[in-house]
Specification:
Largest interface: A-B, 44 and 44 residues
Oligomer: homodimer
Structural class of chain A: mainly alpha
Number of strands of chain A: 0
Radius of gyration of chain A: 19 Å
CATH architecture of the largest domain in chain A: Orthogonal Bundle
CATH topology of the largest domain in chain A: Tetracycline Repressor, domain 2
Largest sheet of chain A: none
Shape of chain A: elongated
CATH class of the largest domain in chain A: Mainly Alpha
Number of helices of chain A: 10
Order of helices and strands of chain A: HHHHHHHHHH
DNA sequence: CGATAAGTGGAAGAGGGTGTGCGTTTGCAG
DNA sequence: CTGCAAACGCACACCCTCTTCCACTTATCG
């Protein structure tokens, strides 16, 4: 299928020629993991995934030494979509519309697939191919926010970390059944977006220090 | 201390006269649980709580047959505060201010104590003494929302389930370190409250079907 | 077709959390 | 002060998840 995606550079050279049956099992595993991550979250027991795929746990471990690797492969596509989405939104001639689209689309992805938030917020650090992509995303996001503000489409005290705040919040909603999660996410995002428009609104409390690095450690004080 | 609080009616009659040492251990356990629930969430291993309290796990199980019982006792006070808070806010002559106060105060409690959300959202059903209190709270909340709308302090399409939506969202923020969690909660609530004021705002997407019953089952599709 | 290396599943063990039976200690009342 | 029921902790059994070992199977290439 779409195997030759963003191959990890240091494991790519060996030109991993899997045997046909191994490749099939690999695909079954990814497929099973995709379903289970979406419905039950990113923490489903690996044995459950193996059973669903119809292979033994050992096979899963042989193919994916760490859970992280499986997560990365499962969400590689969607994570890629996110990147290109950001790129497109960031390049939108109407930055206000770009930001709205970005938020609505990403939160919708979160609500659709329960595990996606985990991968996105990088509770499993290897999922996104590390800091490079994140730094760039953060940079683009800041730029988009500033441009929206300059264009008068966004209140001046909107902070780029408010986006992370929203992603975190929507993550909680994703635990609900899909229809509820989506409705809830749409509603919450709509509230925030409406309040984020410039106008004679009262000042906001200071932004939460939700910088990039903060999100990457697992929940846990 | 404040032992004779909301004693469960069906265990009260025996006039549980605990031996002095047993009572002391009981208090140590509640104290330890309170701290650990606040910092590490409601799911900390019971053995950790026992160790922190300086007693054996068996003693914990003897005193609190189910985790739920411990949660109930630990958060009884704060849950009681919530009830009286709702009562006060609901009786506020300015319903808009009442609703604002209600939301700001409860979400602040969520952000301060990580486990509180769990007890409040009743992931552990016995925590709140069952449906009676909840039904009443739901009823009062609906009334408060309607009155705020009638008073012109709240947009007509605000739905009482939006409150649950917000509680759910803030729950996720509570996993962050306390200062961040509080700042984030304040910020999110401020956004929603500002957007919730009546005005020439665009219509919202339909409310999420987050009825009472929905919140009570644990997260898990 | 047959040799060989890649691939597989079952079984077993390590680790952590929950829950319990039992012999011992201890508060307290007579 | 003494006896006993209450309370305690140890130690263990159970379950679940992760992880690895090893003997067996099978795809593939010559």
């Amino acid at each position: 299928m779409e195997r030759p995606h963003s191959q990890n550079p240091k494991t790519a050279p060996p030109a991993t020629h899997l045997r046909a049956d191994a490749q099939a099992n690999h695909d079954l595993l990814v497929e099973a993991a995709r379903e289970l991550f979406s419905t039950h979250g990113i923490d489903v027991p690996l044995s459950t995934i193996a059973r669903r795929a119809g292979v033994s746990a050992a096979t899963l471990y042989r193919r994916f030494p760490a859970r992280e690797a499986l997560v990365a492969e499962v969400f590689a596509e969607q994570l890629g979509e996110c990147e290109s989405l950001l790129e497109r939104c960031q390049a939108d001639e109407d930055p206000g519309r770009g930001l709205r689209r970005l938020l609505m689309t990403i939160t919708d992805m979160q609500a659709r697939s329960r595990g996606f938030s985990g991968a996105l917020l990088a509770r499993y650090p290897g999922a996104i191919d590390l800091d490079a992509t994140r730094e760039r995303a953060d940079h683009d996001l800041r730029g988009l926010v500033r441009r929206a503000q300059d264009a008068g489409a966004l209140r001046p005290d909107f902070d780029h970390t408010d986006v992370y705040l929203l992603l975190l919040a929507v993550d909680a909603l994703a635990a609900q059944p899909p229809e509820i999660a989506q409705a809830a996410a749409r509603r919450l995002v709509a509230y925030v977006l409406q309040a984020a428009r410039p106008g004679r609104a009262a000042p906001l409390p200071p932004p939460a220090p939700l910088e990039l690095a903060v999100l990457h450690q697992d929940q846990g004080r």
